[in-house]
Amino acid sequence: MAESERVSHTLSPSAWNRFETCPRQYWLSRQKLPRKAGMAASLGTIVHASVEDLLQMDLSGRDNREVGWLGPIAEKFLRTRWEEEKQIFHKTPRRPKWKEEDFPKAKRQQRGAIRMLLRFIDSPEIANDKVSIAHWRKLHSRVIAVEGELRTSDDRLMGRLDMLLADVDEDGNLRSWVVADLKTGRVPEGGVLKPEVHRQLLLYRDILGSNNQNAPPIRAEGWYTDDAGIYTAEGDSVMADALKAWEATKPSDVPLEATPGEKSCGGFCDWKAWCPHWWNWRAEGGGSNSDFKDIVVLLHHYDSISGGGVAEMCEPADEAGRVLPTGLQMTINFDNRGKEALEELLEKGHKGPIFVGSAMMKRGSCRVGHWCDVLAWSPIPDA
User: Which is nearest to 233 in space by CA: 223, 242, 243, 225?
Assistant: First the structure.
């Protein structure tokens, strides 16, 4: 594509979801602010990468009758990817605690993926130690692509393809392509895909079809590793809606509209330290009465040995997020990764208000643990 023809941006399904949840959240995600690592996302990355390794492993020179190999090599790939992801995780400044105890969970998720792959080649009941090299060669013959990038020809829409598989009949004739997207999250309730997942799968199907005019029928599926369940997405094309979203998400120096509410501000938004709107929404009575709260405080005293201190609660002074101290002081305790994050912030010379995400509030005191964000309060005004 010539320089003059380059598009302003490329829209992915996750960015589309953010924009629909809250345009300001989407805008903030594009401002090169510090990104947040998370154990669930890392677990997904590890499982995906280990399955990719299994689908691309070299089988040359192996005896078709060989069995007992799958378990050891699968765990080897998983452990390698676990250690790689752990290093990346620890290099990310915004991070919670790494949970070494989650490795068995990663193994279980990987086993779920393997069960679905064996089902795809009509060997669903075979135990891992009975899987032969012949079985795996059959599987490899059905793999068209793994971990590929999907993009429309005009570069406006994109996605990450986990697996593209060939579905064949009993005689080996191609029936369809299968877009298989591995999911390590919660299994769909009642067997119904979440709307945003359903749309993501249809978009992958549509991009693939638009790029391959002579493609066979394309089926889009969510492969959930937790229950080894396969859920198919069916429906009309979503390309027109995606292109409308692309138009609405063109880069802007001016922050996009905020849509504060339970869905956008009451959930997990990674950009609250830079947005005044959730804070005003909360001050006006929005949100639940959970023990875990996002707060803005002034730290008046801190003991680096114990992690204890005294903090003053703040309220928004205006819509721009200027801070109004309330005079209400409380004991605050920082531990584990929460303590490390605070001390990293103080070492940079920060002396102003502090945003704490998901602080545990009980009986007039506050605990800032390994799950918490600790960041300088830096709201970006509307204009």
Answer: 223
What's the first-to-final CA gap in the chain, in angstroms? Answer: 34
Reply yes or no on whether the pLDDT at 357 is more than 50. Answer: yes
- Phi, psi for residue 208 in degrees, rounded to 5: -60, -40
The residue type found at 300 is: H
What's the chain's average pLDDT?
Answer: 95
C-alpha to C-alpha distance for 319 and 379, rounded to whole angstroms: 10
At residue 4, the pLDDT reads: 41
pTM here is: 0.93
Query: DSSP of 252-286, one letter per residue?
Result: -SSPPPP--SHHHHSS--TTGGG-SHHHHHHHTT-
Verify that 138 and 94 share a domain, yes or no: yes
**Domain at 266, CATH number:** 2.40.50
Q: Is the pLDDT of residue 6 over 70?
A: no
Q: How far apart are CA 304 and CA 308, in angstroms?
A: 7
Task: Report the pLDDT value the prediction gives residue 2, as an integer from 0 to 100.
Answer: 46
Q: Is residue 180 part of a domain?
A: yes
The count of other CB atoms within 10 Å of the CB of residue 153 is 10
